[in-house]
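Hi Prof. W.,

I finally got the Iron complex transport system ATP-binding protein prediction working! I wasn't sure whether to trim anything, so I left the full sequence exactly as given:
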Amino acid sequence: MEKVLSLNNIIWRRNGETILNDVSFEVNKGEQWAVLGLNGAGKTSVLDIIMGYNYPTDGSARVVGTEFGKASLPEMRKKIGFVSSSLDKFYQTLNRETGLNIVLSGKFSSFGLYQSIDTASKRKAEDILKKLNLSYLSDRTYNTFSEGERRRILIGRALMGEPELLILDEPCSGLDIRAREDVLKIVNGIPQEKRHLLYVTHHIEELTSAITHVLLVKDGGIVAAGPKKEVLTGKLLSDTYKTPVKVYFENERPWLVIDNVEGDDD
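And this is what came out:
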């Protein structure tokens, strides 16, 4: 089966400290993955390897057809869309851009629009805004957007580049429930665009029906990886979160509750 990405026995050390230890997992064509773990578990380090920002100390990696050490990583990144709260560092540049220009900038992987735009590209950006129900932001500037609108417009920007792999790193962090569901509605439609999704979070209730597989990360290693309902069990998540929990599914989404191991008062 054709693979979107493959990490094999990845070890990554920094300043003599092992950050990732024997990390292996594969994303096949047609699979949509989530990565779950506590803060500091190693989720961001896994992403940095996938995007080629950190190079494995040992092991091998192949992402969207690029084998590390044998091809250009900057060229590989052109096939990857990325949305994260870390993009807030570009706020001053984004602040003065309109919604339409922000989406258009995704064609060039830039923050700010510095190139001339042809009619076809403008029409494509307008279509993305329409699909995401964001046309009303077309002429408004970023500094007038709500937090939820900012996350959604950045997803639109990532889609403009037609990525083979779209990485969403905690896209719902800090959002209220309505804004979160607006973002998740967009996420749920991404596989219909024939793209592959890597959704990173520590909240399992964000995993919509679009997610088919889950990777659990703890202390720089992997607890489990595989089909969603096989991995999202109370036992495996209790291990991952270092807290006793129970899991149930409702409307094709998983939900987590703390397991009262001491028993109820009654």
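The chain is about 30% helix and 30% strand. Does that look reasonable to you?

Thanks,
D.
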